[in-house]
Design a protein that fits this description.
Arc Repressor Mutant, subunit A; 3-stranded mixed beta sheet; 46% helix; disordered N terminus; two-stranded antiparallel ribbon; alpha+beta; 2 domains; Dna Ligase, domain 1; 153 residues
Length: 153
């Protein structure tokens, strides 16, 4: 797995907000804290359930507004992994790609320097400047393959 952002205490989170020009509010700290601590690709609805445990008065609309702001300020990335909803993750310090299981939806992050090098080489050979890219590989994870094999007996 690719290392994600460093673990966050409230002071670190406040510093990141201020460095990014985000006004610090208690609701935003709770939402961002839950997202950063989840350590996974999470939907707004899943995040809402986590946040409700800490403050049931924070609504889903506040979750969406905060996610949009965090994405706009470059602290969070939004992904759509071949399904109907967005998932969010803390922007990692280094680029990574994703393996996505089409059975259970599990997402595995990976970094592969050879792939990155080949992409850079392809762009260089074509006098192309890369601004952004993503690689998503869809397949079936070992657990799902094993479950299928067990059902066929």
């Amino acid at each position: 797995m690719v290392p994600s952002a460093d673990p966050l205490d409230e002071n670190t989170l406040v510093s990141r907000f201020r460095d990014s020009g985000i006004q610090v509010t208690p609701q935003r700290l709770i939402i961002a804290g839950a997202l950063f601590q989840s350590g996974k690709h999470i939907s707004a609805e899943e995040l809402y359930l986590l946040v409700r445990e800490k403050n049931p008065r924070i609504g889903l609309a506040t979750i969406y507004r905060t996610l949009h702001l965090l994405k706009e300020k470059g602290l969070v990335e939004e992904h759509r992994f071949n399904d109907e909803f967005s998932r969010y993750e803390v922007k990692a310090p280094t680029h990574h790609d994703h393996l996505i299981c089409i059975e259970c939806g599990m997402v595995v992050e990976f970094g592969q320097p050879v792939i990155e090098h080949l992409q850079d080489l392809a762009a260089q050979e074509r006098n192309f400047t890369i601004v952004s890219h993503k690689l998503e590989i869809y397949g079936i994870c070992k657990d799902c393959r094993d479950r299928k094999a067990m059902k066929s007996y």
